[in-house]
Amino acid sequence: MTGAHGPGTSAATPDPARRGTSRRRFLGGAAIGAAGLAAGAAAGVGLASAEAAPPVTAGQLAAQREAQTVPFYGTRQAGITTPQQERLMFAALDVTSTDVQDVQRLLGRWAALAARFTAGRPVSDSPGNPDAPPFDTGEAMDSGPYSLTITVGFGASLFDDRFGLADRRPAALAPLGTIPGDAVMKPAITGGDLCIQACADDPQVVFHAIRNMVRAARGTAVLRWSQLGFGRASATGAGQTTPRNLFGFRDGTNNIHADDTGGLDQHVWVSGSDQRWMDDGSYLVARKIRMEIESWDTDDLADQQRIFGRRKDTGAPLTGGTEFTPIDFHRTGADGVPVIDPHSHVRLASPEANGGVRLLRRGYNYTDGQDPDTGKLAAGLFFLSYQRDPHAQFKVLQTRLGKSDLMNEYIAHIGGGVWACPPGVRQAGDWFGRSLFD
């Protein structure tokens, strides 16, 4: 499928008409709590007084959530600073073709599909041939977009000698080298020429997006590995509450938020790099971090809080205050011992301990059921972070954490990778990373 300005098809204008009634709308409506109802009622106050405004029902709030869209076209890719959604599916693929034009056509198809999916539309509006497989797999047929975002990245392996791109590989994609804690990384769930990150507030919507984009890659690329995530483990949007990880602690309290434009420009968005095609892009580091749930559950509360450096109930630092109170790393107790352990997670990960280095975190909890070898829960954190330079940011932080973080007794990095996420798709006919091939 080739558009007028490059490979791909242009996406149709989103249809404002609501399509069939969604079963998930009613199921989701039942899960809306009183706080959500109150917020929705407040949002519904317009010219009329609050007393005159009709009550907003759980079903109406669920319908609004289902219909919510995030613009796809833009200077920068969505899914980086977008307020973090509740569900994730991540996929890494390897390119099997040796023709660079096949890669370009694939990126064009993906851009066209992403534009449709993020608007709540199927692969095609054509009825198709009843004697052939349908264009769309159909599992999201009666669903809205649920704030779906689709973010695409290029791995270092894409810049080998297959496609003539070796001299266009950014320095930031050079191998990170040996980092403490990487010894158990599994090759089968590490790396990939391409990656797709799909985030939304509905699990079937993210699955549908990845499934159909992988399907569209047949003949050009194959799935290398994938991961489902639930229950966001970070907050990226202004006003989002800090979520809890599977150890039960609030995680990412000091994350960069979307309204911190200065922080984003300094730490997240690429500009003036050695490869100008990456300007307005960002580098994604993903890590699948297994948590030793059963061992953690036997540890006493005081030690758990010492490991994190925060209270488990409120998220407040052990030096006092509320969750967002600045941490006094120099404070000592009556015995002269630092209140915040020097090897606590919050201390080692702090900008103060790392020359001001910060990341935009966008992680998710995950579970893969039961580990057949150990009988334990196969669960943990699927860590996603965005930054200007993985060497100057992620590697610096992870080297410090990997050496002496008290949490290392309970976690292991078992997979992941690094990808260059190029600028956004600006308009219909444009495609992911087009300037890389110019």
From TrEMBL:
It catalyses: heme b + 2 H(+) = protoporphyrin IX + Fe(2+). It is an enzyme of class 1 (oxidoreductase). Binds 1 heme b (iron(II)-protoporphyrin IX) group non-covalently per subunit. GO terms for biological process: iron import into cell. It is found in: Cell envelope. The chain crosses the membrane at residues 26-48. Residues 242-425 form the Dyp-type peroxidase C-terminal domain. Pfam families: Dyp_perox_C (PF20628), Dyp_perox_N (PF04261). Residues 1-22, 120-140 are annotated as: Disordered. Its EC number is 1.11.1.-. Residues 77-230 form the Dyp-type peroxidase N-terminal domain. Its cofactor is heme b. Keywords: Heme, Iron, Lyase, Membrane, Metal-binding, Oxidoreductase, Peroxidase, Signal, Transmembrane, Transmembrane helix. GO terms for molecular function: ferrochelatase activity; heme binding; metal ion binding; peroxidase activity. GO terms for cellular component: cell envelope; cytosol. NCBIfam families: Dyp_perox_fam, tat_substr_1. Belongs to the DyP-type peroxidase family. This is Deferrochelatase. The lineage of its organism: Bacteria, Bacillati, Actinomycetota, Actinomycetes, Nakamurellales.
